[in-house]
Amino acid sequence: MKKTLSLLIVLLIGLTISRQAHAQTNNWAVGFRIGEPAGVNIRKYFGENHAFDLNFGTYGGIYGTRRGYRKGVYKNVGFSVQGHYLWHGSIGKAETLHYYYGFGGQINRRRYYPDQFRVGNFYDNTISIGGSGVAGLEYFLPNKPLSVFLETGAYVEVIPAPFFLGFQSGLGVRLNL
């Protein structure tokens, strides 16, 4: 895992050095997100004001590893994949600050500890699926292929615990390729 992460960082730095400064929302963006979920972020821009955003990484670390869920608790950090269809636009004439919002879905995998097994350390690897929404601001560094973003949103589970609500937020950085 460390080798893969190191290779990705070296590749991103190499791409940054080899490319000239250009339009910020050119085509693809790759970055890292700290928050809920935390991990790798990939964005594909298309059209004048549309994009698709994909996050994959850890889930459950920021808002608490121990959280009531169904008839039991979560006690750990899990894995999440989240995708959103986005609408975005610039704020002001400089076009360095953008807003975005969108909707999509999320799949999580976490250990669920049912109350019926209070004695011992028995758990069930739960996979949950639901809808999610996001809204955020992104600042593009002038004449640089980097951007910094701040976003917030919510996750509403459909399966296996309908209407389980999870708030999400994050900040990060993207390299715009």
Spatial shape: elongated
> Unreliable runs, pLDDT <50, ≥5 residues?
14-23
Structural class, judged by helices and strands? mainly beta
Strand residues, percent: over 45%
Query: What is the helix content?
Result: under 10%
**N- to C-terminal distance:** 24 Å
Rg from alpha-carbon coordinates: 18 Å
The whole-number mean of residue pLDDT values reads: 83
The description of the largest β-sheet is: 8 strands, antiparallel, barrel
Number of helices: 1
Q: Count of DSSP E strands?
A: 10
Q: What is the spatial order of strands in the main beta sheet? A: 1-2-3-6-7-8-9-10
Helix and strand pattern? HEEEEEEEEEE
Summarize the structure.
With 177 residues, this protein is mainly β. 10% of the residues lie in helices and 61% in strands. An 8-stranded antiparallel beta barrel has the order 1-2-3-6-7-8-9-10.
What do these coordinates show?
This protein has 177 residues and is mostly beta strands. The protein has one helix and ten strands. It has one helix at residues 2-18; strands at residues 28-35, 38-46, 50-59, 67-69, 72-74, 78-91, 97-114, 124-140, 146-159, 165-176. A hairpin with a 2-residue loop joins strand 4 and strand 5 (72-74). The longest helix is centred in the N-terminal third of the chain and has 17 residues, at 2-18. The two termini are 24 Å apart. The model is unreliable at 14-23 (pLDDT under 50).
Descriptive terms for the model:
mainly beta, 61% strand, 1 helix, 177 residues, elongated, single chain
